[in-house]
C-alpha cells in the first residue's frame, strides 16, 4: 500500500493517483501531523486521523473529500488529537454509540418502566411519541443533538401550534431524563430549549357566530366530519376521545356516554342530548360492517382520525378562521355558564373532576348535568337558527 507525504492542497488531492484494484493509496499531510487521505481504486477519497492510542494504531474517520474541505479536515484532526491527549479514544466513543440503545428502545423502556406504571395518561404518551418522534426510532440516542430537537420544536410549532410543540419538547426531555436516571452516560439534547410562551385561550363560538357555524357544518360534504363536529359541540368532549368513541361506551337506555379513560386518566360520563342520540342512532343503523367505532374510518386505525381538511372547509365557510376544534369543548362550557350552571356542574360535564366507576348512570348525579347540557344546547340551537335582521 503506497504512501506519500505532501502538502494538502486542492490541486494535489484532485490529482492523487488511483491504486490497483483491491489496493489503497495513503497520502499524509505535511502541515497537520497525523492527517491522512485514503484513496481507493474507484476514486473514493476519505480523510482520517492516524494515531497510536494505547500502543495500538487507530484510524479515525474525519469525512469524505471533497465533502469536507482540507481546512475543515485539519481542524477536525486537531480536535481529535486534543481528545486523545486528554486520554479519550474517539474510536471507543464510536464503538460505544454502536452498542448503545436506539431511540425506539429508549421509548419502549420509558413506556414499560415508567409511563405505564406511573401515568394514567400513558396512552397519550405512546400515541404522541409515535406520531411526532418515530423518525428518530432507528437512531442511537446519543446521535440526536440539541439543534435537531430545537428544529423539531419549531417545526411542530409552525405546523401544529405552540401547545403541541411544548408537549413534545416535554416528552423528549422526559425520555432522556429517564435514560440518564437508568444509567445512560450522556447529555439530554432537550436541555436549554425554552418552551414557547403559552397564553390561556378563552375562544368559544359567540352568540352572533353560532348561526354561521351551524350552517357551515350542515353544508360540509363529509357526513362523518359533519357528525363529528356536532358531537364535539353537543358533548363538550375532547377531540381524541370523540374520534375514538366506541359503541360499547354508549348507553341508549340512559342516554349517556362513558369515556373509560380521558386525558387525566379518569373515566367520565357525558349525558347525551336528543340531537346527539339522533346522530348515534342513525350511525348505528348505517354501521353495516359492525365496526366497534362510532366514527369508523378506512385507515389502519379503524376510526376516522383526520378531520383537518373538513375542519378547514368549515372554518372557511363560516368565516371563523381562528376557531379550533378544541374551542367547541370550550363553547359547551361557556354556554353552560351563560345559562346559569354552577362551576362544579360545568366541571363534571367536561370531566374536569374524577369520578368513581360506581357512579355510572346514577340519576342524581346525571340530572343536574343533563339539565345544564340541554339548556346550553337549546341556546346554541336558538342562536343557530335565528334569522338575520
Explain this structure.
The longest helix has 23 residues. With 389 residues, the chain is an alpha+beta fold. It has a five-stranded mixed beta sheet with strand order 1-2-3-4-5, with helices on one face. A three-stranded antiparallel beta sheet has the order 6-7-8. Helix content is 48%, strand content 12%. The protein contains 15 helices and eight strands.
Q: Main β-sheet: number of strands, strand sense, barrel status?
A: 5 strands, mixed
Strand order of the largest sheet: 1-2-3-4-5
CATH superfamily grouping of the largest domain: Intergrase catalytic core
Radius of gyration, rounded?
Answer: 31 Å
* Structural class by helix and strand composition: alpha+beta
Bulk shape: elongated
- Unreliable segments of 5+ consecutive residues: 354-365
Strand content: 5-15%
Summarize it.
By secondary structure, this protein is α+β, with helices and mostly antiparallel strands. 48% of the residues lie in helices and 12% in strands.
Task: Annotate the secondary structure layout.
Layout: E1 3-6, H1 10-14, E2 24-29, E3 35-40, E4 45-53, E5 56-65, H2 70-85, H3 90-99, H4 103-118, H5 122-133, H6 146-160, H7 162-181, H8 210-218, H9 223-235, H10 239-243, E6 250-251, E7 256-259, E8 268-271, H11 274-286, H12 308-318, H13 326-338, H14 343-349, H15 363-385
Parallel strand pairs: 1-2
Antiparallel strand pairs: 2-3, 3-4, 4-5, 6-7, 7-8
Helix pairs in contact: 4-5, 4-7, 6-7, 8-12, 8-15, 9-13, 13-15, 14-15
Amino acid at each position: 500500500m503506497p504512501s506519500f507525504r505532501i502538502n494538502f492542497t486542492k490541486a494535489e488531492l484532485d490529482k492523487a493517483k488511483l491504486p490497483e484494484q483491491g489496493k489503497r493509496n495513503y497520502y499524509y499531510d505535511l502541515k497537520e501531523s497525523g492527517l491522512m487521505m485514503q484513496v481507493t481504486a474507484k476514486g473514493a477519497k476519505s480523510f482520517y486521523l492516524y494515531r497510536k492510542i494505547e500502543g495500538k494504531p487507530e484510524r479515525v474517520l474525519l469525512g469524505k473529500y471533497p465533502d469536507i474541505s482540507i481546512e475543515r479536515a485539519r481542524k477536525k484532526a486537531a480536535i481529535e488529537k486534543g481528545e486523545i491527549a486528554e486520554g479519550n479514544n474517539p474510536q471507543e466513543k464510536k464503538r460505544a454509540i454502536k452498542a448503545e440503545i436506539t431511540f425506539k428502545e429508549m421509548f419502549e423502556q420509558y413506556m414499560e418502566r415508567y409511563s405505564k406504571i406511573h401515568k394514567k395518561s400513558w396512552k397519550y404518551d405512546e400515541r404522541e411519541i409515535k406520531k411526532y418522534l418515530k423518525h428518530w426510532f432507528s437512531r442511537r440516542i446519543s446521535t440526536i443533538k440539541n439543534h435537531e430537537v430545537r428544529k423539531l420544536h419549531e417545526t411542530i410549532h409552525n405546523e401544529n401550534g405552540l401547545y403541541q410543540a411544548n408537549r413534545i419538547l416535554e416528552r423528549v426531555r422526559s425520555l432522556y431524563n429517564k435514560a440518564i436516571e437508568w444509567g445512560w452516560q450522556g447529555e439530554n439534547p432537550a436541555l436549554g430549549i425554552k418552551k414557547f410562551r403559552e397564553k390561556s385561550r378563552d375562544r368559544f363560538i359567540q352568540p352572533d357566530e353560532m348561526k354561521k357555524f351551524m350552517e357551515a357544518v350542515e353544508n360540509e360534504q363529509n357526513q362523518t366530519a359533519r357528525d363529528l363536529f356536532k358531537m364535539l359541540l353537543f358533548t363538550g368532549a375532547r377531540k381524541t376521545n370523540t374520534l375514538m368513541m366506541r359503541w360499547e361506551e354508549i348507553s341508549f337506555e340512559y342516554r349517556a356516554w362513558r369515556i373509560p379513560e380521558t386525558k387525566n386518566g379518569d373515566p367520565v360520563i357525558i349525558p347525551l342530548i336528543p340531537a346527539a342520540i339522533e346522530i348515534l342512532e342513525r350511525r348505528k343503523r348505517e354501521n353495516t360492517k359492525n365496526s366497534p367505532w362510532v366514527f369508523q374510518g378506512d385507515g389502519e386505525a379503524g376510526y376516522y382520525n383526520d378531520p383537518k381538511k373538513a375542519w378547514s372547509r368549515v372554518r372557511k365557510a363560516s368565516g371563523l378562521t381562528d376557531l379550533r376544534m378544541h374551542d367547541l369543548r370550550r363553547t359547551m362550557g361557556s354556554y353552560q355558564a351563560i345559562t346559569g350552571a354552577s362551576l362544579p356542574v360545568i366541571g363534571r360535564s367536561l370531566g374536569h373532576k374524577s369520578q368513581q366507576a360506581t357512579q355510572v348512570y346514577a340519576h342524581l348525579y346525571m340530572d343536574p348535568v343533563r339539565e345544564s347540557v340541554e339548556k346550553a344546547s337549546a341556546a346554541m340551537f336558538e342562536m343557530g337558527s335565528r334569522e338575520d335582521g
